[in-house]
Amino acid sequence: MAISNDLRRAIGNDQLTVFYQPIVDMHAGGIVKAEALLRWQHPENGEISPVDFIPIAEHTGMIVGIGNWVFQRALQQAGEWRITQPDFTVSVNVSPVQFYRSNEAYYREWLNNCKTLGGPPGAGPAVSIEITESLMMASDETVMDKLAAFQNAGIKISLDDFGTGYSSLSYLRKFNLDYLKIDQSFVHNLEQDTANCALCEAIIVMAHKLGLKVIAEGIETPGQRDMLARAGCDYGQGYLFGQPIPADQFDVLLKNAP
Ligand code: G
Ligand code: G
Ligand code: MN
Ligand code: NA
C-alpha cells in the first residue's frame, strides 16, 4: 500500500515530529506536564492525522520503531524542560501493538534511556506512558510483566480515553495505575448535560479512592474547567489551556506561564 511505503520513508526523512500539549494543575495552576502527540507532514498530501497513520503503523509493525523514536524524543525534550521545572513530565501514548510486538531487550533499552536521557533524576523518570483499555483487556502475563517493569523503573502509567471502551472496573483493581484520563466526550457537554456531570464527579471520587490522580481531557471552556476543579479533578488538558504545538513554541509557553 502506498501510504505504508510513504510512512516507512517518513521516518528517515524528518517528516515526523512530536508536538506537545500542555497539562495544567487544576488547583495550583501552571503547566506541569505535557502530552506528546505525533505529527506527520507528508511531502505531497500535507499533514496526515495519527488517527489515519497509527493504525497502518500498528498493522505493519512500524509502530515499534516509531514508538521508540517518539519515546526518545519526548524523554530528551522533557529533560530540557526539567532544567527549569524539576518535576516536569511528558506523557507518551503507547500502542498495545508495541507491547505485543516487542521483546525484553526493547524494554530494557527504554528503561536504560530513562536513566541516561531525561535530565535531573531527582523527580523520577521524565516520561510517563498512556495506555488504553484494549491493552488491559488482553491482560496476559507478558503484558502484565512489561507494565510492571515500567512501574518498577518509576515510570507512571495513565489509562487514556477512560469511559469510552468497555471500562470494566475490574481492570482498575488488577492493574496498579497512576493516572486516569477522563475522555473528552464526557467533558465537551459538561455544562449542558447533568448526566455527564454526574459521571465525571463519580469517576473522580472513585479514582481518588483507588489512589489514582485524574486528568480531564478536552477542556475548552472556563465553565468546564471550573466544574471539574470543583469536583476535585487534579489536572486538565484541552484547547482552553493550549493546543498541541512544536517543542520550540512550547518552550515559549512554559517561559511565559505564570
Ligand atoms: O492529536 P491528535 O488528534 O492528533 O491524536 C489523535 C490520536 O492519535 C490520539 O488517539 C492519540 O492518542 C494518537 N497518537 C498521537 N500520537 C501518538 C503516538 O506517538 N503513539 C500512539 N500510539 N498514538 C498516538
Ligand atoms: O486519544 P488521546 O487522548 O491520546 O488523544 C487526544 C486527542 O485530543 C488529540 O487528538 C488532541 O489533539 C485532541 N485534543 C486535545 N485537546 C482537545 C480539545 O480541547 N478539544 C478537542 N476537540 N480535541 C482535543
Ligand atoms: Mn493520550
Ligand atoms: Na484520550
From TrEMBL:
Where in this chain does the record put each EAL domain? 1-258
- The name under which this protein is listed is EAL domain-containing protein
